[in-house]
Amino acid sequence: MLRQDPSRQHQPDEDRFRAILPEDIAWLPFPAFPSGARLAVIVGHPNEPGPYVVRVKVPGGTRLMPHKHPEDRVYTVMSGVFYIGLGERFDGDDVKAYPPGSVIVLPGETWHFHWAKSGEYVTQVYAIGPLGLEYHDDDDDPRLHAVAR
After folding, report:
1. Distance of CA 9 to the CA centre of its chain
2. pLDDT for 102-145, tens place per residue?
3. What is the residue extent of each domain of the chain?
């Protein structure tokens, strides 16, 4: 019989079995995203050190302009087609399309951009927090432009 080491520490809120059903996911606006895009925290606390899982839902036509994250990330495409390109300038001709089930590994500090080119997509992101997001051009950062959502 396997026994768990009693001295083992768990992440906050991760010390018991639980399941998150699709109908229980709370999609919320995220200040760093364009209007209409939503983020759902699935596991962990993204603003704190430690592992986390979030989902990102982006409506068709939306562009997330060039940005980077300090943390390494693993994206899984849940639905729709996820278009991503690398670089400091948005180039719609230089995005690659990833269908549901695709896994994308994005090293931290990599400039990249997303485009919901063919309709809404949902990705799941696994990373070690805290979550960070820095836009290449301040004009693209929704946090710097107070707009009612």
Report:
1. 26
2. 999 999 999 999 999 999 999 999 999 999 999 999 999 999 98
3. 24-144
Identify the three-state secondary structure at position 32: coil
Taking phi over 0 as left and psi of -120 to 50 as alpha, with beta for the rest, 79 belongs to beta
Report d(CA 17, CA 6) in Å as an integer: 16
Token pair in block for residue 52: 């986390």
pTM over 0.85: yes
**pLDDT band at 148, cuts 50/70/90?**
very low
Q: Which fold has domain 24-144?
A: Jelly Rolls (2.60.120)
The rounded distance, in Å, linking the Cα atoms of 7 and 105 is 32
The whole-angstrom separation of Cα 131 and Cα 32 is 11
